What does this fold into?
Amino acid sequence: MRFISFVLPLLLVLSFSTNSVAANHPFSDVRDDFWAKDEINYLYQNGIIKGYEDGTFRPNHTVTRAQAAIMIAGALELDLENRPAPPFVDIPEDNLDYDVIAALADEGIITGRDGEFMPNAPLNRGQMAVIFERAFQLEGHSDQDFSDIREDHVFYDEIQALAANNIAKGYAEDNTYRPNDSMSRAQFSAFLARVLDDSFQPVNGELEIHHLNVGQGDSTLILTPNGKTILIDAGTQSAGQKVVNYLKQAGVSSIDKLIITHAHADHIGGAVEVMRNFDVSLVLDNGIPHTSQTYLNYLTYIDDHDIPFEVAAIGDSINLDPALTIQIVNSGIPGDLLNDASVALHLTHNEFTYLITGDAEEKAEHRIVEQFQVESDVLRVGHHGSRTSTTPYFIKNVLPKVAIVSYGEGNRYGHPHPEVLELLTAVGVERIYGTAGGDVVLVSNGEDFEVLGGNLIRDNTSNPPPEDGVMYPININTADLETLQHITGVGPTIAQRIIDYRTTHGSFTSIEEIKNVSGIGDVSFERMKDEITVG
It folds into this structure.
């Protein structure tokens, strides 16, 4: 029996590598958890894409100009008959894609360069903007200014049209568009699906990170701006039902990624109960086995129910939502103890950053800051606030404004340790929250953030005196840039967007109209509605 308890984890882990693709999936290499699965399926069902003869789509391969042309022609349902010869010396009549390229050239959608179409060359993001603008007659200018696209850029108008129509929003981490970057077949498919069906377009709501009060354990729920769901850890076995109830009350119906940082029972114990109650598209963990019965139950449930499983790799990204960049900054490597093998994630939502490290201790913390830039607005403090984590070298590289500690009231370990709280205070952390006083919810619009609930362990800020001359409610039709920033959740960027919106659309006719301003969603509006008026 003892021998089986050691061998079974290895057998189960090996079996996960052969998890089959869902039977109703048109392509063998596009799994249920693939970020662009729905868009690719939509194009397939509408006859716009067919894939390869071997049943694959090869979503991560670079899309060529010819492949893009075929998809555009299919989306437009162009008549390919009796078109004039295309003006490209590299597209002879015996070219397999001759009719498609001739039709697009005849429609003025593609022009080539120096008399060549270059069918096998990669299509870049700038060229994609031009083709989409011509093919679908896109118009408009966005209030989003990409840092690498000046007004004199050759593709400025086309890229602005894409952004205005919510087709492409650029890269969240640095607000760039990267017009010279090539595109994968999946990326092109996602953009094309957004043009054809606006249900695929980014919602760009607010990011919510819920730190659940599960006692001496860990469970963190991430609700992304575009409606994806990530659950990081599930607390102890006794907390499993509490996690399930919380998720249901939060409106969660399925989980896109269940991430288990490591195999200790206070992180993994409730996972089976979660999987019993929700469809899980993918389980991700560090791949380091454990001998506990709790861990064996977890592996067995995944295997018995054919839940897709992957091992987290340091440096990989979790591509679930275009509004977020989520990078895996730690996972298990040979020689790690379980805590140091914790999966750690660094999340970026426009200007907002967040770091969560499981129970990673000094060795892993050093590894993280040596390999990655992890300065963050908010830190989910490692190992429940134990002195074995949150080391000086680490915290001086993270420099959070806010720290959140998950621990149980009166726990036998004395978490959080006083020296950790002192260190956090010494490096300038403004507020430290704990889950022992209730769930801690973090809400961000990508620029500002707010922490709700929980137990405020330490408040290291001084309360400034009220500003003279600021009268509430603030008139959003007449307030200047500085005055607008006295509204809850409004910083300089959103204040300027409010002014730009007034300039473009005229006066606000209701306070609810402010939700049309980029960066203000339902949660932000609820917090500010009593502070604003339209006159």
About this structure: Confidence is low (pLDDT under 50) at residues 1-23, 463-467.
